[in-house]
Design brief:
Layout: H1 5-14, E1 17-25, E2 31-37, H2 41-45, E3 49-52, E4 66-78, E5 87-97, H3 107-120, E6 125-139, E7 145-149, H4 150-153, H5 163-177, E8 182-187, E9 193-198, E10 201-202, H6 203-223, E11 226-229, E12 243-251, E13 254-255, H7 268-288, H8 294-297, E14 310-311, E15 319-320, E16 331-333, H9 342-358, H10 376-381, H11 391-399, H12 402-429, H13 433-439
The protein binds adenosine-5'-diphosphate and magnesium ion (MG) (4 copies).
The site of one magnesium ion has 3 residues, from loops.
Length: 443
């Protein structure tokens, strides 16, 4: 599907669209938009919509603030949850400078740069299938989110009466209307936790899809009086939400990771891609797991990874190679969580894998045992190291990984690290209720 400017202008008229949202994502993964009335559509498709970049966190300073939105015409779609009157459509945009050059701080541009590098190496397509998990919580009388789940509240209302399940079904229907192919949707391990899997696609579109997915989930939850959150670990002692990222490289329509003659049916490139991911995964963590809270998910016992390892089966491994071969051959990275900026996440994942291929890296031996059951000595003996234990450690690992820094580019890297350091410092200096409960009487 490739829309022309004329197609967009015609569809806006024919479908009676009244508003157009020009969307882009800031470096911290927040979806932003400039709303236009339909009368502005010609200006919009001609890349003439300007906005003030200095009002977006981590973008530019006041003195260089005029930026332009160049819409990706193929991203045009109407929001199915809006009423038939006053319809709203969106266009996902690239951010450009006033002089017509791409803005280096645009996360979508960061991903495009790495995709170009992959093409230069002969890999025409990087396919990505994300598995984003989320919680649906009840809201209180003021509409504020609680941590009460529906499953608990209505525990005798099974099946179709469960409000969470019916909301998830509505989300799936809306996504299908927006062109998603939903492969599976199911309740997750924790009460109130859900997963919706949509079919893999080329990485830029996959990242766009993740942003659309989060918007759809949040919007439809709210319409149903619930609050959806992609916060990685909303409740202590209960499984957190991850975003397993399934990846494969294609060349001329063929999956490069598959090699029937290779060990376990995997190609040399696949092993090098795994090795590259393992080599850079600590440096990538501040991007794949960007919040203070992200590190509360990465603890033993909940199928979330903590240690650097790969396996063809083991779900305690950081990287799993699902049994499927042929076109479905893929590498599943299990550390990312859905609070990450998907453009930056996929950019650093691809760059790490390509680095492995370029340098002909080989991964360490597969770990088939349950790593959670090993003690530190057993892990040390096998050379299994751990992911960063906190956002602070992750920032330090990022600063020490030149490939990840270069992938982000100095503008994004500097602003990102500055923002994350501030976030860590805010957290570090707060006094939590856990501390008070633990210390106020005994000391
Ligand atoms: P799991 O067994 O880990 O729960 P799921 O079935 O929930 O896995 O999700 C698998 C994801 O992998 C889906 O999004 C699917 O489209 C995606 N996928 C399938 N084949 C490929 C491929 N070749 N490259 C990338 N992703 C793929
Ligand atoms: Mg899954
Ligand atoms: Mg599955
Ligand atoms: Mg899951
Ligand atoms: Mg998975």
């Amino acid at each position: 599907m490739a829309y022309t400017k004329e197609d967009i202008i015609r569809m806006v008229k024919e479908e009676d669209i009244e508003f157009i949202r020009m969307q882009f994502t800031d470096i911290f993964g927040q979806l932003k938009n400039v709303a236009l009335t339909a009368s502005q559509i010609e200006k919009a498709v001609n890349n003439e919509i300007m906005f003030d970049g200095s009002s977006i966190e981590g973008f530019v300073r006041i003195d260089e603030s005029d930026q332009y939105l160049y819409p990706d015409l193929d991203s045009f779609v109407a929001f199915p949850w809006r009423p038939a009157h006053g319809k709203v459509a969106r266009l996902i945009c690239d951010v450009y400078n006033a002089d017509g050059t791409p803005f280096v701080g645009d996360p979508r541009g960061v991903l495009k740069r790495v995709l170009k590098k992959a093409r230069d190496m002969g890999f025409d397509t990087f396919n990505v299938g994300p598995e984003a998990e989320f919680f649906l919580f009840q809201t209180d009388e003021e509409g504020k989110p609680t941590t009460k789940t529906n499953d608990e509240a209505g525990y005798f209302d099974l099946g179709p009466l469960d409000h969470g399940e019916s909301t998830r079904r509505e989300i799936c229907l809306a996504l299908e209307q927006m062109g998603f192919e939903i492969e599976a949707s199911h309740h997750e391990v924790a009460a109130g936790q859900h997963e919706i899997d949509f079919k893999y696609t080329e990485a830029l579109k996959a990242a766009d899809n993740i942003m659309t997915f989060k918007l759809a989930v949040k919007t439809l939850a709210q319409k149903n009086g619930l609050h959806a959150t992609f916060m990685p670990k909303p409740i202590f002692g209960v499984a957190g939400s991850g975003m397993h990222t399934n990846m494969s490289l294609f060349k001329n329509g063929e999956n490069v990771f598959c090699d029937p003659k290779g060990e376990k049916g995997l190609s040399k490139e696949c092993y090098s891609f795994i090795a590259g991911l393992l080599h850079h995964v600590k440096g990538m963590a501040a991007v794949t797991n960007p919040l203070v809270n992200s590190y509360k998910r990465l603890v033993p016992g909940y199928e979330a990874p903590c240690y650097l390892s790969w396996s063809a089966s083991n779900r305690s491994a950081l990287i799993r190679i699902p049994a499927t071969r042929g076109q479905g051959t893929r590498v599943e990275l299990r550390s990312p969580d859905p609070s990450c900026n998907p453009y930056l996440e996929l950019a650093v994942c691809l760059a790490a894998g390509l680095d492995g291929i370029e340098k002909g890296m080989t991964p360490p031996a597969e770990i088939t045992e349950n790593i959670y059951a090993m003690d530190e000595d057993a892990r040390d003996a096998r050379g299994i190291s751990a992911l960063p234990g906190s956002l602070e450690e992750a920032i330090e690992a990022l600063e020490a990984d030149q490939l990840v820094l270069d992938t982000l580019g100095s503008h994004v890297a500097e602003n990102y690290i500055e923002g994350k350091r501030k976030e860590w410092d805010e957290y570090r200096t707060r006094v939590s209720s856990w501390e008070r409960e633990k210390y106020i009487i005994n000391y």
